[in-house]
Amino acid sequence: MSVKADTIATDGSKHALSASRFRHNVVRDLANPELRNNFRMAMDHLVDKRRQAFSSEDELETLRRKCQLIKQRCLRKLPELLEQLESKLEQNGIRVHWAETAAEANDIIAALIQGRNGKQVVKGKSMVSEETALNDHLLGKGIQCLETDMGEFIVQMAGEHPSHIIMPAIHQNKRQVAELFTKQVPGFDYSTDVDTLIQTGRETLRTKFCHADVGVTGVNFAVAETGTLCLVENEGNGRMVTTVPDMHIAITGIEKVVEFLEDVPPLLSLLTRSATGQIISTYFNMITHPRRRGEKDGPKEVHLVLLDNGRSQAFADEELRQTLQCIRCGACMNHCPVYTRIGGHAYGTVYPGPIGKIISPHMLGLDATRDLPTASSLCGACGEVCPVKIPIPKILLRLRKESVKPKAESAVVKGQGSSRKSLEAGIWSLWRRLNTSPAIYRAVLWLASRGRWLMPKKAGAWTRYRTLPRPAPRPLRELVKQREKRGEWDEKR
Asked: How would DSSP label each residue in 294-341?
């Protein structure tokens, strides 16, 4: 049994992400009742599992506070820890490569694969490789890259991108997956039995591991103290990818480094319970060196690509730096009323939902993501459930402010001022002048009350579902003065 990997890759390369089409995508996905039902059921299930994973609110809050402090400590020392990590990894026999941009990371990985004359790559789940669009880049070099995580395998086969950072195919139900397998997997007899679907995927992928030239994975935690790469997974595909091929290439963002090995257990405990409600994941891989003499498995070469791609921009600002605390659990998405209704593809970015709204502007710029910080009700659910206490609503407000600031060469965020409009800025300038001058304020109130019937009944999209309010016949100031003249206030006293 085999999958047409060339067809899958070609289809996948045609699916382009674009945050600039967010409004169009929202309208499209809100009109899809099956998609909305899939997300509603999945999010309710995940929220309930997370709630049951903690014995008490006190345990949860204690662990959240502990992990917040760990991440903040590591971020404060980030430059030194990255140097320590590189030194320790090199001592362990793992080559380290630095990439400032996504394109640079792709070029490094492609060069490493071509150096071994590699043509077939198997990849474990890696959101950073999605961030760099690695699969499409390798395809352009004549290298096939097959996803081995079941969810990633499904979305690759469908020519899509992940709709969730933990469960990539959460937008599809079992009927849709069964129809996809019927079309793409030779010899598959249509079945909506979940066990049958999973077994079919495993059998299809098993043969690919043995023939792969290179394995590619992400990294959940990189330990500076020991030079250890930690990989969290449930399916065993990550372990196969990191042990069967002769070369293992890991790619991760620079913020994933932690100082000590003892920092990992609390972060792992919080990650798995926040993400899927599991006390612990099925597999936890710790990679410290390539295969040594006398060992029977493992890669002969291990490489780590450390990617910046806008992370230094977030790091430079003390408030925005909190964005880098993220451990990619997806809890903020699972509790977000906006994400639950529109799904992940509507965002047009690799990282959807609340965390995507505050990460993507650093990677793509506010000019490309200007609609994302405003696509929030600011209900605060994301901040309340974030396991490392990232104040997401507060950062969203900060990004909204940055998007309407005057453009400057020393912008804090790439694309600063992209949402600024001269007319809107002028209106707010008049508003400030009006509310800081008592004489002008009283004059405008008098004119508004006397000319209230001249107000239009429609005001663009705002009145599509609302009635435009009219000023009162008399301002409160005049009513109070009239009562004072009649002595009504004195009588009441």
From this structure: T-SSS-SEEEEEEE-TTHHHHHTSTTGGGGGG-----HHHHT-HHHHH
Could you give phi then psi for residue 221, rounded to 5 degrees? -140, 135
For residue 468, name the pLDDT band (cuts at 50, 70, 90). Answer: confident
Per-residue tokens: 185: 């997997």
- Spell out the alpha helix ranges (H) of 189-263: 194-211, 237-243
Strand stretches in 109-227, DSSP E: 120-123, 144-147, 214-217, 221-223
Alpha-carbon torsion angle 115, 100, 362, 223, nearest 10? 80
d(CA 109, CA 94): 14
Task: Note the pLDDT tens digit of each residue in 277-293.
Answer: 999 999 999 999 999 98
Tell me how far CA of residue 58 lies from CA of 54, 68, 148, 197, in angstroms.
9, 15, 38, 40
What's the pLDDT at 491?
A: 55
The Cα 65–Cα 328 span in angstroms is 17
Whose structure tokens read 């919080």?
270
Largest CA distance in the chain: 102
Residue pair 385/353 in contact by the 8 Å Cβ criterion = no
Phi, psi of 77 (to 5 degrees): -100, 15
Q: Which residues contact 78 (CB under 8 A, 6 or more apart)?
A: 254, 255, 257, 315
Nearest CA to 350 out of 19, 56, 9 is that of 19
Query: Per mean pLDDT, which range of 119-133, 199-213, 338-352, 426-440 is the poorest?
Result: 199-213
User: Is residue 232 helix, strand or coil?
Assistant: strand
Distance CA 175, CA 123 (A): 26
- Condensed to tens digits (0 to 9), the pLDDT of residues 94-122 reads 999 999 999 999 999 999 999 999 999 99
Is 228 within 8 Å of 287 (Cβ atoms)? yes
State the Cα–Cα distance between residues 321 and 455, nearest whole angstrom. 46
The angle at the Cα of 137, spanning 87 to 171, to the nearest 5 degrees, equals: 100
Query: What is the model's pLDDT at position 466?
Result: 86
Angstrom distances, CA of residue 71 to CA of 67, 77, 279, 393, 398 = 6, 10, 21, 19, 21
- Give the residue with greater pLDDT, 471 vs 381: 381
What are the structure tokens assigned to 293, written together? 């003499």
How far apart CA 270 and CA 327 sit, in angstroms, is 9
Q: Which segment, 77-86, 440-449, 463-472, is predicted with the most confidence on average?
A: 77-86
| Burial group, residue 237, by CB count within 10 angstroms (0-12, 13-18, 19+) | buried
| Residue 475: predicted pLDDT | 84
> Which residues is 176 bridged to in the sheet?
none
The β-bridge partners of 258 are 223
